[in-house]
Write a structure and sequence with these properties.
This protein has 279 residues and is of the alpha/beta class. The protein contains eight helices and seven strands, in the order βαβαβαβαβαβαβαα. The chain has a seven-stranded parallel sheet, sandwiched between helices. The structure holds NADP nicotinamide-adenine-dinucleotide phosphate (NAP).
Length: 279
């Protein structure tokens, strides 16, 4: 399925700013119609109006808080409809802070928005896509999915966020294997630091005021989206927009297989105590 041509309707979550706004704008310019999901109605309405005017696309704003189960169910129902050809699970929050100090309710919300919502929406979208023999799901993760080997500084305070993004990577890769025999594509995109509003708050409440970009720099969101849509064309399952040499991804996959293949039913020698050796 060519992602450059008008092929139907795309649902983009987290479309009210940053990477999600760029997915919406890029897809509309390429001829897609859109359903735009986020909490801030004013932003969605303004974006929908602009894209209708600039591109002629049909754009449906859908105000929803993906951390609320009733809203999520409403979006899932929309995503399951026959006209949806592309789902972009982009909405995400960071909940950064020292793990022992962050409000547990915020950590639960990070998991709800970053893990539960994309899983529920993917589950809603895929049966119809598989039955129709066309469609794609893009999950926006992060380079922090690969944070487990990082030293404590300069990136502490991201354990739950990194965990949610690690989930998205393993979820998407495993799902891709499950769907390999179908024409339906799934992708996980892992941006590094991107110039959006993402670091202006923890995500507990929407960023207020006009759109503004954080001061830390980072990749323009349009480049993240260009990489993701190009990777859909080339059927790359794990898309890392800033990674020039994809070799490490292949080696990572090889090492994962080595961990699995090297692990058997017998207790590894380094864990054997004299007591366990006698049994
Ligand atoms: N910026 C980075 O450096 C970076 C790097 C790697 C990965 N990412 C990932 O990229 C994705 C997009 O982030 P961004 O950088 O574009 O940040 P952003 O500008 O803060 O955008 C986040 C989007 O998610 C929406 N959202 C947040 N909570 C929501 C909720 N409860 N229900 C519905 N929508 C919600 C926000 O809309 P409302 O506030 O209007 O609801 C907004 O549209 C996220 O998954 C993030 O983890 C970002």
């Amino acid at each position: 399925m060519p992602y450059d041509s008008p092929v139907g309707l795309a649902v983009v979550t987290g479309a009210s700013s940053g990477i999600g706004t760029e997915y919406a704008a890029t897809l509309a310019r390429r001829g897609w119609d859109l359903v735009l999901v986020a909490r801030r109605a004013d932003r969605l309405d303004a974006l929908a109006g602009r894209l209708r005017e600039e591109t002629g696309a049909a754009v449906e704003p859908m105000v929803a808080d993906l951390a609320r189960s009733s809203d999520l169910a409403r979006v899932a129902e929309r995503v399951a409809a026959d006209d949806v050809a592309l789902l972009v699970n982009n909405a995400g929050i960071n909940g950064y802070g020292p793990f022992t100090e962050v409000d547990p309710a915020l950590l639960a919300k990070v998991i709800d928005v970053n893990v539960v919502a994309p899983t529920v929406l993917t589950r809603a979208a895929l049966p119809g896509m598989v039955a129709r023999g066309r469609g794609a799901v893009v999950n926006v993760a992060s380079l922090l999915a690969f944070a487990g080997a990082l030293p404590p500084a300069p990136l502490p305070h991201r354990a739950v966020y990194g965990g949610t993004k690690g989930y998205m990577v393993t979820f998407t890769r495993t799902l891709a294997a499950e769907l390999a025999a179908t024409p339906v594509r799934v992708q996980v995109v892992c941006p590094g630091l991107t110039a959006t509003e993402f670091h202006l708050g923890t995500g507990e409440a929407p960023v207020t005021g006009e759109a503004r970009v954080h001061d830390e720099g980072g990749m323009p969101p349009a480049d993240v989206v260009a990489a993701s849509l190009a990777a859909l064309e080339s059927r790359e399952v794990v898309c890392v927009p800033g990674l020039s040499d994809p070799g490490p991804l292949a080696r990572l996959a090889d090492e994962e297989l080595a961990v699995r293949d090297g692990s058997g039913a017998a207790l590894a020698p380094r864990y054997r105590t004299p007591e366990r050796s006698r049994e």
